[in-house]
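Next up, a specimen:

>
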Amino acid sequence: METQKKAPASAAVLAAAALWGVIGLWNRRLMAAGLSPFSIVLVRNFGGMVLLAAFFALKDRSVFRVERRHLKYFFGTGVVSVALFTVCYFSCQKLCSLAAASILLYTAPSFVVLLSAVLWREPVTGKKLLALALTLLGCALVCGVSGGGLSVTLPGVLLGLGSGFFYALYSIFGRFALAHYPPLAVTVWTFLFAGPASLVLLRPAELAGAFGGNAGVWGTALALAVFSTAAPYILYTWGLARMEPGRASILASLEPVAAALTGVLAFGEPLGPPAALGVLCVLAGVYVLR
């Protein structure tokens, strides 16, 4: 019975991870059009903000009603988490290999489990530790640790750990916000902060060159904002409201598996034995937390 109660929330988090994982479908097209990763972050966060704000301005304006004293939580989810983790992550990619950056990012569930234990005395059970170990190993294998392609520098490692830490803070700040507001309000206000904060990455000439008269780029940007930004954050926040933050963060480790499978199915990328084993490890970790 307990498993049945958790099933909808777990399904929502897993669906969010899958939608985050297919972000490569949109990113590759936008990069081919001339956008840098930092411009894509701006398109994603600012576009997500515009989309969510416009939709709820027409459908349900109640999500905009929050108390001023609670804005600190949305500054946390939007600026400290969504905006800062992205800046740290892309900066890490400049200093380290992509595989190393990805592995460091997925230290996030470890941070969530530790912070949740300190803040809310969330139990660190053997089942949770096993799931955490399986998903961390699986992410490492999927991201290429066994291929010998790891290249790291001390500043890069610090930035990578920073990306994992700031990524984890969405689950922490989000739980505080969810104590006062429904998931939709938390998601909308997250991007009302993350969108403007991402304007520091603005490159007007680059955006004008990519979007000028190109309907395909506009369509891809819309898909990025809908399917890999607004929708997964709504799903993840809904699931987070119904389970422990540590559990939600571990389940979200399905994201690199979805990314690897997207590469195979959409771009014909090979999936070697180590990566296949990594997929199985992550799925095993998710099964442990069922």
Q: What stands out?
A: Residues 2-288 form one domain. The chain has a mean pLDDT of 91. The first helix runs from residue 2 to 21.
